[in-house]
Amino acid sequence: MMMATGISALALTACQTATTGGAAAASASDGKYLSQPLVRDIYTADPSAHVWADGRIYIYPSHDIETDIPEDDLGSHFAMRDYRVLSMDTVGGPVTVHGVALDIKDVPWAGQQMWAPDAASKDGTYFLYFPAKDKQGVFRIGVATSKSPTGPFKAEPQPIPGSFSMDPNVFKDSDGQYYMYFGGIWGGQLQKWAKGSYDPNGSATDLGDNAAPALTAKIARMNPDLKTFAEAPRDVVILDQAGKPILTGDHDRRFFEGSWTFRKDGKYYFTYSTGDTHYLVYATGDNPYGPFTYQGRIMEPVQGWTTHHSIIETGGKWYLFYHDTQISGKTHLRNVKVAELTFEPDGSIRTLQPIRPE
């Protein structure tokens, strides 16, 4: 894969409707980074970007907050409790931070940790999909609706039946059908569902057999109401170039979390994070279910432990939305960024370097 060159940093100006302090004290920019934070007055991560019918770009991120919870491998220190929507007319233009879109106190079934969300739009209604641990500490996926893309959103009283784990991504195909991709290992608990039901004593990481096919994301076609699954979730199989499943021990390529699917030139791109090796990577297939064949890296590791992203086309260009820890230097206090993506004539994605070489 070729490395990206000649891409200027995007010094993006924040135009806030509300502030929380803390991040605002950071310096204006640092030239060693490919891109600059979209906003500095709140901490944001896991950006889910969409262009709705009005042509404006809406970003549905996690809202990171300070916490005294000790850091661990299960992400206990990611203790987010609400969502705020960002919006802008164009990439590089002023960014608006909207008011609280959904608070955990208004989700009857949720107990803690409102992690990476996604959104969808249909017939004038906007849908916010979000993972949270229920009162028993098990991750489920909820849905909330609004007539405004920025909320406030009203949550359904129960999580989506049959949902589990985290990181929902709802993809609308060209035929108007919607699919949800979801799941994440380690703190995302996907490995605890390996036998079809939740096992509280299951592995804390993965299946524990490096030679076995890796756990992977799930996919389910959605009903027309976009609040329920039309089928039982099935595996999103990722293959190597030889047609063999990616193995558990292949940490550079196996699925960890952060599904994002899009279609370009008739090809389906399933993109995801490798977690502990910190890559954003992609695989391609010929239908939403896959199987998908691993192709390469979208982005090398960012500053900070986590990597989570989204990809959109707007204004005739493709963009990667991602996060790092430029402002805080702390794993759990992140900032959302955006960089332009380049596709080669064969459909491959040119790999981005988020930190410029010294």
Question: What do these coordinates show?
Answer:
- Helix content is about 0%, strand content about 35%.
- The protein starts with 13 loop residues before the first strand and ends in a 17-residue tail after the last strand.
- The chain is globular, with a radius of gyration of 19 Å.
- With about 350 residues, it is mainly beta.
- The N terminus is likely disordered.
- The chain has a five-stranded mixed β-sheet, with no helix packed on it.
- It has no helices and 22 strands.
Structural class: mainly beta
Question: What is the helix tally?
Answer: 0
Sketch the topology as an H/E string, one letter per element. Answer: EEEEEEEEEEEEEEEEEEEEEE
Q: Roughly what fraction of the amino acids lie in strands?
A: 35-45%
Characterize the biggest β-sheet.
5 strands, mixed
Q: Termini distance?
A: 21 Å
Shape: globular
Mean pLDDT: 92
Radius of gyration: 19 Å
**Low-confidence blocks of residues:** 1-26
Q: Record the strand order, biggest sheet.
A: 1-5-4-3-2
